[in-house]
């Protein structure tokens, strides 16, 4: 029986010894603070016997292991980009090892210490320790408004102005006060935060510090909507040569409901020549697909809109390439329907394909404006008020809408697109000769005027390689959940282009994006440079 007890004790001692050694190593090498720092301790460790000499009993080793474990924080909320290296001497005995660990953990901060409000006693003590303000405690500069008053039985230096007395805060407490107010006032803006703090406290440079802190706050940058946009857009060259470029896009789907409650979905494929304003509109066909219901283990057939790349390329060839002069370029967005077959079609006809950056409809602005006109025509057509909505009704409306756009006066052309293209009025046999050089100058002038107007609403800012930026989620008015962040990121900029786009690194993905969708991510060092 005695032998079995001795064996159990030996096993327990060995297990505790090994576990304590692992915990000690882990606690030394990975000590997380309040999520703002990552402390890396450089410790020259001796062999395991110097940590736990053979003479030490099991109880003392267990207490030491629990002490180390109580200080260990396994939080993953750390920032390894900002290491603070704590140099500590080697441990050659139990007492020295305790001193090593005490020195190591003295480098960390209690999370509550970062956000606990200061007291008048603490401010007064900091004033007495500060070389700048301790002389004012003895001889206050009354001409500058400084005086010593008694608050809570504590003499403290204040600045008196506008019939109010404000506590003078030394440099060592300023960052702590700013952090506490910004955290517990739920991230207020710079003006509201400044008014709140300056009503009771004073120090030189408070406004600049508050503005820099609010500007560089990660939560504020990701969770709030910025009123102003950053970065001027480069000048854009207008398309002035007829039939040189064609812009294509999809609009819809539109849901049309008749008086019987029957609903039809309509989606249109639109094409426009930006120089002449000539448009073509084609309705997307439907196709039958089979869907599998996993719950009932059944297959069912349903009808959906066919917006595949093969259908888009067929409609483009039928409604544009087979009717009008072959263009040099095709402008489209990055949707999957404008890839694969359309890319092959353009390659076969030696047509350059110019896709726009993602979620940037302004790059194809002329066709987006035409979509706005189509939406207005659809709402005023009365299709939703018919007794029965049929495919023939929709087909007739598409033809009427296309003719209406071709026969309507264009402000840049100073005529209708039909008259500019065919040399006569769309209704009467009245000749018209278009001066394409003058039309091109007017179009370029309008593009420049629009560019200046948009840049007047933006702040000058240069996106540079290595800087960080945020992606604005609801750039085109998308509805987001109220609790979601308004900005996504930050991401590092890897390339900057001259056409108003940059390339960012999103994990393993490299994406080219327009600066309209971006907003800068300010860090402390960058913000300080910007203020200067």
Protein architecture, described:
This protein is α/β, with parallel strands linked by helices and 532 residues long. The chain has helices spanning 2-29, 48-51, 58-71, 94-105, 111-115, 120-129, 134-138, 171-184, 190-198, 206-216, 218-223, 309-321, 341-348, 365-381, 391-406, 417-422, 436-456, 524-531, and strands spanning 31-32, 38-42, 83-87, 146-151, 154-161, 164-168, 201-202, 229-230, 245-257, 263-272, 279-283, 286-293, 298-305, 329-332, 352-355, 458-459, 468-472, 487-496, 501-506, 509-514, 518-520. The strands form 6 sheets. The protein has a 5-stranded mixed β-sheet with strand order 11-10-9-14-15, with helices on both faces. A 5-stranded antiparallel β-sheet has the order 20-19-18-17-21. The longest helix has 28 residues, at 2-29. Residues 1-59, 68-92, 104-114 and 526-532 have low confidence and may be disordered.
Keywords:
single chain, 532 residues, alpha/beta, five-stranded mixed beta sheet, five-stranded antiparallel beta sheet, 18 helices, 21 strands, 22% strand
Topology (SSEs and partners):
Blueprint: H1 2-29, E1 31-32, E2 38-42, H2 48-51, H3 58-71, E3 83-87, H4 94-105, H5 111-115, H6 120-129, H7 134-138, E4 146-151, E5 154-161, E6 164-168, H8 171-184, H9 190-198, E7 201-202, H10 206-216, H11 218-223, E8 229-230, E9 245-257, E10 263-272, E11 279-283, E12 286-293, E13 298-305, H12 309-321, E14 329-332, H13 341-348, E15 352-355, H14 365-381, H15 391-406, H16 417-422, H17 436-456, E16 458-459, E17 468-472, E18 487-496, E19 501-506, E20 509-514, E21 518-520, H18 524-531
Parallel strand pairs: 2-3, 6-7, 8-16, 9-14, 14-15
Antiparallel strand pairs: 1-2, 4-5, 5-6, 9-10, 10-11, 12-13, 17-18, 17-21, 18-19, 19-20
Helix pairs in contact: 1-3, 9-10, 10-18
């Amino acid at each position: 029986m005695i032998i079995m007890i001795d064996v159990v004790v030996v096993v327990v001692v060995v297990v505790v010894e090994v576990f304590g050694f692992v915990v000690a190593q882990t606690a030394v090498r990975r000590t997380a603070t309040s999520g703002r720092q990552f402390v890396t301790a450089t410790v020259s460790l001796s062999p395991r016997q110097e940590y736990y000499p053979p003479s030490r009993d099991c109880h003392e080793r267990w207490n030491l292991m629990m002490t180390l474990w109580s200080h260990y924080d396994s939080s993953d909320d750390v920032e390894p980009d900002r290491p603070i290296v704590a140099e500590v001497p080697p441990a050659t005995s139990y007492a020295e090892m305790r001193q090593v660990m005490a020195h190591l953990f003295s480098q960390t901060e209690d999370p509550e210490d970062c956000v606990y409000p200061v007291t008048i006693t603490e401010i007064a003590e900091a004033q007495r320790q500060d070389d700048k303000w301790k002389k004012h405690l003895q001889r206050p500069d009354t001409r500058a408004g400084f005086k010593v008053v008694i608050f809570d039985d504590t003499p403290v230096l204040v600045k008196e102005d506008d019939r109010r007395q404000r506590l003078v805060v030394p440099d060592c407490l300023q960052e702590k006060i700013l952090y506490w107010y910004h955290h517990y006032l739920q991230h207020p803006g710079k003006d509201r935060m400044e008014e709140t703090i300056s009503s009771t406290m004073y120090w030189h440079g408070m406004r600049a510090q508050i503005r820099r802190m609010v500007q560089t706050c990660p939560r504020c940058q990701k969770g709030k909507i910025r009123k102003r946009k950053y970065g001027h857009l480069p000048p854009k060259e207008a398309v002035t040569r007829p039939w040189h470029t064609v812009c294509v896009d999809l609009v819809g789907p539109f849901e049309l409901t008749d008086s019987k409650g029957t609903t039809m979905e309509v989606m249109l494929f639109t094409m426009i020549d930006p120089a002449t304003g000539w448009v073509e509109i084609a309705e997307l066909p439907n196709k039958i697909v089979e869907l599998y219901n996993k719950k009932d283990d059944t297959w069912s057939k349903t009808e959906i809109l066919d917006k595949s790349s093969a259908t888009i390329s067929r409609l483009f060839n039928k409604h544009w390439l087979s009717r009008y002069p072959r263009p040099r370029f095709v402008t489209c967005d990055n949707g999957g329907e404008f890839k694969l077959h359309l890319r092959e079609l353009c390659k076969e006809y030696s047509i350059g394909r110019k896709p726009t950056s993602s979620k940037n409809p302004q790059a194809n602005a002329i066709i987006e404006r035409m979509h706005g006109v189509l939406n207005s025509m659809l709402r005023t057509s009365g299709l939703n008020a018919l007794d029965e909505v049929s495919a023939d009704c929709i087909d007739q409306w598409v033809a009427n809408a296309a003719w209406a756009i071709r026969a309507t006066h264009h402000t840049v052309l100073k005529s209708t697109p039909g008259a500019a293209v065919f040399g006569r009025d769309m209704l009467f046999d009245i000749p018209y000769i278009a001066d394409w050089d003058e039309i091109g100058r007017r179009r370029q002038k309008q593009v420049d005027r629009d560019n200046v107007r948009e840049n007047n609403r933006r702040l000058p800012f240069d996106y540079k390689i290595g800087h960080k930026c945020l992606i604005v989620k609801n750039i085109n008015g998308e509805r987001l959940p109220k609790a979601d962040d308004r900005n996504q990121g930050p991401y590092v900029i890897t390339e900057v282009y001259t056409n108003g786009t940059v390339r960012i690194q999103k994990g393993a993905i490299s994406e080219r994006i327009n600066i309209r969708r971006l907003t800068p991510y300010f860090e402390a060092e960058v913000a300080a440079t910007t203020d200067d």
